[in-house]
Amino acid sequence: MTHTADDIVFLSAAAQSQLIRERKLSPVELMRACLARIERWNPVLRAYITVLADRALAEAEAAEREIAAGRWRGPLHGLPFGVKDQLNTRGIRTTLGSRILADNVPDHDAAVIERLRDAGAILIGKENLHEFGKGGTIDFAYGQPRNPWNIEHNPASSSSGSGIAPASGFSSGSLGEDTGGSVRSPAAANGIVGLRPTFGRVSRWGGVMYGWTADTIGPLTRTVEDNALFLQAIAGHDSRDPLSSRRPVPDYRSALTGDLRGLKVGVVRELCWPEGAHPEVVAAMRSAIQVLSNLGADITEVSLPRARYAVPLQLLTSDSDIAAMMLRHWLRTRWQDMDVGTRTRLAAGALIPAAVYHRAMRGRVLVRREVLATLQTCDVLICPTSLNPPGRIETTRETVDSPEAMKNKVLLRRISTYPFSMANVPALALPMGFSAACLPLSLQIAGKPFAESMVFRVGHAYEQATSWHTRHPDLLKIPATPA
After folding, report:
1. What's the number of CA atoms in the CB half-sphere (13 Å) around residue 215?
2. Catalytic residue among 17, 84, 126, 453
3. What CATH number is associated with residue 394?
4. SS3 string of 231-284?
5. Is 467 a catalytic residue?
6. What's the domain range around 235?
7. Structurally, how many domains does the chain consist of?
8. Is 12 labeled as catalytic in the residue annotation?
């Protein structure tokens, strides 16, 4: 069987794996194809901070020998993956997107990286991100990440590179970190699939988790099936993470039946049709609802009136958590070395009074209760992942100087994702169409705690009934340098 390099890199991870197992595709061939694309286009797209070319090729050669000897480890064996540069890697610098940590080299791998390595996957590089993984960066220390569908547009935050890489054929999948939407938003903006797992489903050990009550690690991939494969590899209890769950990990791939008959799908009124939602997103959402209905799902509109409070409640609590961890060291001693957007946001977080913080934590409970109560009446809840197509980079920077800017740049951008973060439930972003300007639009599916199988089931059925996941950005149209 003959494959071009473009064919190889845009195959699903599941398809790549099948060809490798059948000895019709070499892990070395796949790795070289990905590295060639990174060498050509990463200088513009800035998906990676560190590329491990020599090491990754050597590991691909070792995987090829291992598979040839009959020691196939599973569906990720020989596949390249990247990780947000917020996850520690032994002997490889971990910068968190900050100049402050430019020379930080950990002595251990994060638990999720250990598990992917055990599954035979190969780390190809560390991916670009907003400074400290918290969003709001204006001047990126390691280069401005750019959307591969249009480089003048935003690839979203904060796991920016983790969304760009699979969308651009740089890897078979990535790992990102999601506090309020930092996996789902880059998945949406780059036209791929991203999952925020249930809090506790995946070990956070070895990740730099400043938002202690909200941070999760999740996969970004080109298809729902691929996402299930990556979650299968990284999920499960880890004694080093006291907040990781002991619940058994199900077979996620087996949930992809395509059958939605009788499932109750709740359309969240406040998150689907709010004032300010882009008309093309609204139209795509209505079409997605019809697709799910045609597949046999029972569609009902539901209300989450407290969802609109999720954004200020999350900012009041998670930003305060992060600032508290940084105040003693970097905020006081390395102020000038931080991006202005980062330090402004963290300084504001450090000034939140304790009484306000505790009231906000109680408010989070009310939002969580409302989401969980609504999920008792539905199998899943759906809404757009983002209420607008990816905006131009200069217009989406979070420079807030008016109430209107606060509404459009801060509140409206987060309102779809934050309620499910606050409820600590699984939420999946996947392609649901394109704008007239050929920019990706995204559907979000949320489920009950630890119901990733159900979320995958609905997402996979929708994906297979549509063709959006088969479209990929044409990098040949990208100029050597941005305009």
Report:
1. 25
2. 84
3. 3.90.1300.10
4. HHHHECCCCCCCCCCCCCCCCCHHHCCCCCCCCEEEEEHHHHCCCCCCHHHHHH
5. no
6. 5-477
7. 1
8. no
